[in-house]
Design the sequence.
């Protein structure tokens, strides 16, 4: 068969695609469970962190999650419930557009939806060093215990080091990342509305 | 093409790819990722290792298959081979190094579009034996890595005050250290790449002139 002939070209392309795709599918199949486990681990550790359940090693995440967190199925998705310090806390996965891509995070509130209990980023594609700093400790720690105002919370331009006052419903944005900070504010406030609706319907039990 | 006289082919390839024919400052390929990942040394290291391995293995595979590849679909097959190795790397990272996979995000997939890989496949692997092609791909990756690491050192040190995530400048200078925000953004890489090109080319010119002068003396 001629190497540049039509039939050979088509056959060759077909066979070579089959071979390579076979190996890719094989690799994907072999690592599928591991990838899923990694994903579950990162989500569960974010849920624990947002609910304020302390863990010291990744190996504890699964057992702590199983013993302390209850998954409630609601119309608006899964709500994660845990009792910490004799107080019921509820968390949910929130997603929304950031500057470059989807921001996924866990937001936890108290039973009366009066205060945010915790906020933990799961994944984002923001600019490293600017918007990407939303996954740093000081930014996420500001949410803990923050009072929810009538309009939710406001992420403002502040010192860029964190807002220590939990009663003003205000947080410091990330310096040089106004759009990411705005996106966080929108995402969190939207989810607060969801929690409030759920509370009014008696969904937070 | 100045440089070696009495080196073996492998050593000659190494010198060419690292210096005289460097993918970044001579061929000016793979600039997109140079701008994107070099604000952080860890990401740069993983990314450039990924590119080196992909270039090496895809060059070897293409060289081994070359006799059977119809000319018409040559480039399509090259892209197929390259994307195969990139997806394998992506799968391995996701399974075994999830943290790095998360911080690299979409950049791993973008290795496919790195022009160095196809450049080596077209320019070298097509007309050379598999092992030599592997070596050529690997050393091209090293040439890319050397420049990117250099740029990343400057960007991370000035932009974050750290190296490989360890605070260096911020620890030395304390509160008086102000991060250079521009270093974190892509534009700073433009300036730095241009400086590297300028420096390397000036140095190469001087080396060529010096080599010529030496030859003249010998006569």
Sequence:
């Amino acid at each position: 068969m001629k190497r540049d002939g039509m039939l050979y070209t088509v056959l060759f392309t077909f066979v070579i695609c089959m071979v390579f795709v076979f190996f890719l599918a094989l690799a994907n199949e072999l690592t599928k469970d591991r990838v899923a486990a990694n994903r579950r681990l990162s989500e569960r550790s974010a849920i624990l962190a947002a609910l304020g359940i302390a863990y010291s090693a990744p190996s504890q995440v699964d057992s702590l999650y199983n013993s302390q967190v209850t998954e409630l199925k609601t119309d608006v998705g899964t709500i994660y419930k845990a009792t910490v310090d004799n107080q019921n806390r509820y968390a949910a996965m929130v997603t929304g557009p950031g500057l470059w891509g989807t921001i996924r995070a866990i937001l936890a509130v108290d039973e009366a939806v009066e205060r945010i209990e915790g906020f933990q980023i799961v994944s984002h594609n923001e600019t490293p060093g600017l918007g990407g700093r939303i996954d740093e400790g000081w930014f996420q720690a500001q949410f803990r215990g923050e009072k929810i105002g009538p309009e939710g919370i406001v992420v403002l331009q502040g010192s860029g080091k964190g807002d220590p006052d939990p009663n003003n419903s205000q947080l410091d944005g990330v310096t040089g990342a106004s759009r990411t900070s705005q996106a966080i504010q929108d995402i969190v406030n939207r989810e607060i509305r969801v929690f409030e609706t759920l509370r009014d319907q008696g969904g937070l039990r | 093409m100045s440089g070696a006289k009495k080196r073996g082919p492998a050593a000659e390839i190494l010198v060419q790819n690292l210096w005289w024919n460097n993918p970044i400052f001579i061929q000016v390929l793979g600039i997109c990722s140079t701008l994107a990942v070099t604000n952080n040394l860890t990401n740069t290291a993983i990314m450039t290792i990924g590119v080196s391995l992909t270039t090496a293995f895809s060059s070897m595979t293409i060289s081994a298959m070359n006799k059977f590849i119809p000319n018409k679909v040559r480039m399509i097959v090259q892209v197929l081979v390259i994307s195969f190795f990139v997806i394998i790397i992506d799968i391995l990272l996701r399974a075994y190094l999830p943290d790095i996979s998360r911080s690299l995000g979409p950049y791993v997939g973008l290795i496919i579009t790195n022009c160095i890989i196809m450049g080596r496949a077209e320019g070298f692997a097509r007309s050379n034996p598999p092992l030599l092609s592997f070596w050529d791909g690997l050393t091209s990756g090293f040439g890319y890595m050397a420049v990117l690491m250099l740029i990343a050192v400057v960007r991370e040190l000035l932009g974050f005050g750290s190296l490989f995530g360890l605070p260096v400048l911020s620890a030395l200078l304390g509160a008086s250290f102000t991060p250079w925000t521009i270093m974190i953004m892509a534009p700073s890489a433009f300036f730095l790449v241009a400086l590297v090109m300028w420096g390397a080319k000036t140095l190469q010119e001087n080396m060529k002139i010096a080599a010529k002068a030496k030859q003249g003396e010998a006569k």
